[in-house]
Amino acid sequence: MGGVADDEGSGEFLAAMRVGEVRGGIVAEVTGRGVSVILDGFTARPLGCVGPLDLSWVRFSAATVEVGERVTAEVTAVDLERGQVRMSMAATENPELWAFLKSLRIGATLSGRIASIERFGVFVALDDGPDHPVFPGVGFLTIPELSWSPFEDPSDVVQVGQRVECEFLHFDTTNGEARLSLRALRPDPFQSFAATTAVGETLQGRVTRLVPFGAFVRITSDIEGLVHLRELTWKPAEDPEADVRVGDEITVVVTAIDRVRRTLGLSRRLAMPRPE
Question: At residue 118, what are phi and psi to the nearest 5 degrees?
């Protein structure tokens, strides 16, 4: 839906709208890009736009909304330049949950219990706030936010029914979730390691994974580094398996420490005698 902001008097109408208010209207068009809505008070053309991810936390489909259907939605943004207002029908479908999630502040500590462990993340049933209409918990932990330390499976870190405290990261309006971090409330072992380790230092580690571009080596229970393929040996190498195996204990030299990206560069060849 396009157009300029002042055509047919739409500019004045849009300028009076405020983010957070609830507006009603009639569905004018349904496409894969979402739903356009003729808003009450301005019938010249559709000004409301509900994206496909803002339609519902239950249905997740524009096909369940029909042309001519009356809907209500909360204003999430007013675009005067494009002459449209972006809206969320999920907000009015679940007003109590929407209000709760909007009230949360980034960095706040939220408590609850682990409700479900999935391969893509972990649901947390929060102590405060309403239930989710679809998911087993309003809180959600992505895999990287579970722990600073390497792990194979989410169940290695948490168990269903376990009580946890997490930091609130942001309101995921697409799914109606409070995105959380378990690791944010715990010290980052990489920063401690980086503070006491220098480039050029020699360390011992165990090979944990082989990839086409090198080998990952675990230095401590919390810290892994990468030995790039060219750093495995002094001779040219095409396959890391030709020089090391998973489980091998090897000596490496620290070549790079990136505290922002939390990456550790290692070299096995620098710990070996240079060939004559």
Answer: -120, 165
Q: Which residues contact 26 (CB under 8 A, 6 or more apart)?
A: 37, 38, 68, 69, 70, 71
Which three-class secondary structure state does DSSP give residue 189? helix
User: Which residues touch 51 (CB under 8 Å, ≥6 apart)?
Assistant: 33, 34, 86
Q: Which part of the chain has CATH 2.40.50.140?
A: 7-93, 96-185, 189-271
Class for domain 7-93, per CATH?
mainly beta
At 141-154, the pLDDT tens digits run 999 999 998 888 99
Question: Minimal CA–CA distance to 106: which of 57, 187, 166?
Answer: 166
CATH of domain 189-271: 2.40.50.140
Look up the pTM and report it. Answer: 0.73
Mark 237-258 as b/e (b = at least 16 C-beta within 10 Å): beebeebbeeeeebebbbbebe
